[in-house]
Amino acid sequence: MTTWLPDIEQGHGPLYARIADQIEEAIGNGTLPSGTKLPPQRNLAFDVGVTIGTIGRAYGIVRERGLVSGEVGRGTYVLDHPESRPPEQSDPLTTSLSGTRPLIAPAGKLRFDSTAAPDIGQGDILAQLLGDISREHHGDIASYARNFPDHWFEAGSQWLARGNFRPGPETVVPTLGAHAAVVAVISAVTSPGDRIAFETLTYSQISRSAGLIGRRIALVESDEFGMRPEDFERVCAQQHPKLAFLMPGAQNPTVAVMPLDRRQAIADIARKYGVWLVEDNLYGSMTG
């Protein structure tokens, strides 16, 4: 049995969550190798000066994460977690830049990604448009300090309007694409080590980028309508994500459309647990 003890002064959030995170970190860095028996809950509670209920909740979290196995009468043991990736793919930067889209489009398939224009016969049209833009607006293209005209903000306000809601043009922030915008928000409102909740099937480049800047991934089950509220609440209660990423309109890669009542349920859960919601809703105006 190990003599390892957590430092309850470190970390953020509830005490039991901080202890669980430290157990996970110790397992990840080899301080608690596979097969190690964790201290009995009562002993650990006494050693660090907390209640046995706090330790019980911490052990329950790491058990839910699949890191340990507990049996009555035997104790709690660290499970074996062999690396599933081959060594040549272990570099996260190399992996993230490799992409997942095949270079040649499958026959008879309609491509929804924004970089597929050459695959569907639009290369010549784009080349002509880009040539016109470069000739007429070469100064803007070469400028590092970009100024945005007022009608850009007004167009953004109109695009985001839904029902009786319309954001003011002054609240619209132009970015270099949805990917850049989402990663900027993740960087601004979370810190390295924080968890970001994603659907089990999601826009992989966002989750990869989150991992590259030190955020941890929490997966939430989804169905034909997107993220399942009951599993989102389970993840919020057990893993305490700071932010959740959603694509409610024509989700990538499933093309699922999240109905209004589902979005309201997820918003209520996020409000309850203090979780930021970030939506990539590029096709929202087309899906109702």
Fold topology:
Layout: H1 15-28, H2 41-48, H3 52-64, E1 68-71, E2 75-78, H4 92-98, H5 123-136, H6 138-142, H7 150-160, H8 178-189, E3 195-199, H9 204-212, E4 216-220, E5 222-223, E6 226-227, H10 229-239, E7 243-246, H11 260-273, E8 276-279, H12 284-287
Parallel strand pairs: 3-4, 3-7, 7-8
Antiparallel strand pairs: 1-2, 5-6
Helix pairs in contact: 1-3, 2-3, 8-9, 10-11
Order of strands in the sheet with most strands: 4-3-7-8
Mean pLDDT: 82
How many angstroms does the end-to-end distance come to? 58 Å
User: What proportion of the residues form beta strands (DSSP E)?
Assistant: 5-15%
Number of strands: 8
Unreliable sequence segments: 83-103
Question: Which class do the helix and strand fractions yield?
Answer: alpha/beta
Our Rg estimate from Cα atoms comes to 23 Å
Number of DSSP helical runs: 12
CATH domain class of one domain: Alpha Beta
The major pleated sheet works out as: 4 strands, parallel
Going by CATH, the architecture of one domain would be 3-Layer(aba) Sandwich
Order of helices and strands: HHHEEHHHHHEHEEEHEHEH
Estimate percent helicity: 40-55%
- The CATH topology label of one domain is Aspartate Aminotransferase, domain 2
CATH superfamily of one domain: Type I PLP-dependent aspartate aminotransferase-like (Major domain)
Could you please describe the fold and organization of this structure?
This protein has helices at 15-28, 41-48, 52-64, 92-98, 123-136, 138-142, 150-160, 178-189, 204-212, 229-239, 260-273, 284-287, and strands at residues 68-71, 75-78, 195-199, 216-220, 222-223, 226-227, 243-246, 276-279. By secondary structure, it is an alpha/beta fold. Among the domains are: 15-78, Winged helix-like DNA-binding domain superfamily/Winged helix DNA-binding domain (Arc Repressor Mutant, subunit A), CATH 1.10.10.10; 175-287, Type I PLP-dependent aspartate aminotransferase-like (Major domain) (Aspartate Aminotransferase, domain 2, 3-Layer(aba) Sandwich). The N and C termini lie far apart (58 Å). It has a four-stranded parallel beta sheet, sandwiched between helices. The protein has a two-stranded antiparallel ribbon with strand order 1-2. Strands 5-6 form a two-stranded antiparallel sheet.
